[in-house]
Amino acid sequence: MKSQKIRETFLQFFNSKNHAIVPSAPMVIKNDPTLMFTNAGMNQFKEFFLGNGTPKNNRVTDTQKCLRVSGKHNDLEEVGKDTYHHTMFEMLGNWSFGDYFKTEAIDWAWELLTEVYKVDKSKLYVTIFEGDSSEKLERDTEAFDLWKKHLPENRILNGNKKDNFWEMGDQGPCGPCSEIHVDLRSEAEKAEIPGAQLVNADHPQVVEIWNLVFVQYNRKADGSLENLPAKHVDTGMGFERLCMLLQDKKSNYDTDVFTPIIREIETITNTKYGQNKDQDIAIRVIADHVRAVAFSIADGQLPSNTGAGYVIRRILRRAIRYGFTFLSIKEPFIYKLVQVLSDEMGQAFPELKKQQNLIYNVIREEEQSFLRTLDQGLVLLDTIIAEAEDKEVSGGKAFELYDTYGFPIDLTALILSERGYALDEQGFQTELQKQKERSRAATKVETGDWIYVSLNEESFVGYDTLESPTRITRYRQVTSKKLGEHYQLVFSITPFYPEGGGQVGDKGYLEADNGDVIYITDTKKENNLIVHFTENLPKDVEGTFKAVVDAKQRKRSASNHSATHLLHQALRAILGKHVEQKGSMVHSGYLRFDFSHFAKLTQEEIVAVEHFVNARIQEQLALEEQRAIPYEQALGEGAIALFGEKYGDAVRTIRFGKSMELCGGTHVNNTADIWHFKITSESAVASGIRRIEAITGDAVMHYFAEQDMQLAQISALLNNAQEPVKAINNLQEENNALKKQMESLLQEKSGNLKKELLTKIESKTDASGIKINFLAQEIDLDANGMKDLAYQIGNEVENLFVLLASRYEGKALLSCYIDKDLAKAKNLNAGSIVRELGKYIQGGGGGQPFFATAGGKNPDGIPQVLQEVETYVS
Ligand code: SER
Predict the structure, then answer these.
(1) What's the whole-number mean pLDDT along residues 87-116?
(2) What is the pTM of this model?
């Protein structure tokens, strides 16, 4: 059975049991502070388990794109080394939200596997939770009895809390689980060791394929368990492993999910999979990682230097460096795999096909830039090796390479061992650990449990009003490095807009009936709850309040949000329909919009875009809002939806004239309220992605006033020139002419200096007859001038050893040049010499064995430097 058919069969089976088939949620999560990536099928349903939302269907099924590369579930380092772990994988699942429980979950799993997929029953084992006394949890005898209908008792194994009690993270929904394992070994192997002994023992051919979780508890912040309001089922089957089983393979990578990609890697890199252990690992790493990276980019997450983007960058870099080291490919090639990936998976995941070009370009650019970094790292590593004492490179140096240049430690270790050098791995690990602790301390958040005050419904009224009477329904205390100790409140009714769709959360205040006021500093959404941030709790949390949004800030954010829609429309009208939103940030002070486009915008294009938006503002287009219309209807009416966003069945649309988008943000009532739109910058974010920053309303007024002021100052500096541009041109010409004059004067000066210095060279000869032409002198040149001069003399005089010093801008500079042959013959190292001499000028330096420089803050030490080097050479 082909993988496409395997996926389809799963969904149809559960559909026939009255499950609604729903699409995969985006793999990159945008509005959950506790999770960066979807790591299990149940993530998108978390709010239903917690009781914060009501599902439209209480039985659903899907295939979910998952990524396990950070947090509690992280398989990254395993991937490639074995044949059954992945960074990105598909999880097939069926869910019951307070509907059926263990009986149906177990019976249907068995029916699908053995009657529909026709898996040989003798290959299957199941596990049940054995109980845990420290948590006061009993053995799951109910599951045991249910399985007994299908399998002999000796195939139903007990499992401990680690394997058979599933938790999503440190907090949240959880419960006992039953896993289904398959034994894919040959009969001979089975006769030797019974499969039961290998379940959950990391054997590549005895693997878990399906996990049935019976969700019934919530893990609280203090570590205790509480019962959830209802019992649910969450199952997850590893799609790639199921394919391995049904296609009778010994490795996930031998299924048709991976073979087309692997064939392509073989062709591009001229290798053969299955012949060499290291190369096979590299090929698996690349085949796996290209999927993770491509799907993330399709979901709108570009590689970057922070957060989720950094995780994606590291995954791609891991693939590049496996290719670099084990397949000897020193140029970009992973981007070439995007085509087959899109051919194979584009049907099930159309976002991949639609964004194929973007994915291709972004990966290629990342590859180019990382390969450049690797090159620079190699040069630096040469210097480090040259300076290494006792043939060992310190952990600190290796860490610097890793941290500053992204140079991976295993590559450093490999190169060092090839050259016969040792690496202080322990020292490296210590530095790494220190850095991890620093960043952990910087991002640590301690979240207390919710304390419930009143049992009111929680609703949002912020589209219609900025003020509302309200009560606090629940609150909790949170401590984070960024905000310190603070409180988070949920209101019965709130006019506060929670951060979302790029728009910042509202600020404002809460006023108690007795006049007490507390300030709301931010508003965010978490698992469908609107959470208000505040430094202080009101004195009487049970009282009644007036919630008031800061109207001025809100008006500015709304103006910037509406302008963002008009900007999007303008870009598509002026640059073309290929423009797609790739990121948006709507602040009260400005807006930022990232979009796909291949070239820098010309000045004419920028002006045309500004004109377009300002024309829509002048047309005074009224806001036309639809609150809850079916998703399909909205698309039919022409609304723009974004990749990587999760939309519900009922959506909100925002229309101004011909601009229509799906959007949850707040907007002006009429485009005239935006007043004016001005682009302040246009730049590149990544290959094929541009960024525009712009302002609206009173920010534009301030901007022009500021520009006017600057222009007046410039005119004044130019002696009130009427035509400042012309005056500046004249100044530049004059300046260029002076620079030329200066250069020729300097050349003359250094020519004279060279002549003078040549006369000062002293010849010395050591006991073994090696001649040294030595010069130590203070001169009046900058660092570049000294370097040029030293090299010039070195070209004319053999066996030269020069130390030049100068006073420059209140500092001391040293340059040391040693002829290559001389350095070899006498085992001299300019780097170590300047480092030693640096002490006398209160500074330091370094460089290569043949040329090195130092700088220090004590120019008065120069005479002593000259004295010391003289003594040294003598
Ligand atoms: N949540 C469970 C898992 O990820 C089953 O879907 O294994």
Answers:
(1) 97
(2) 0.74
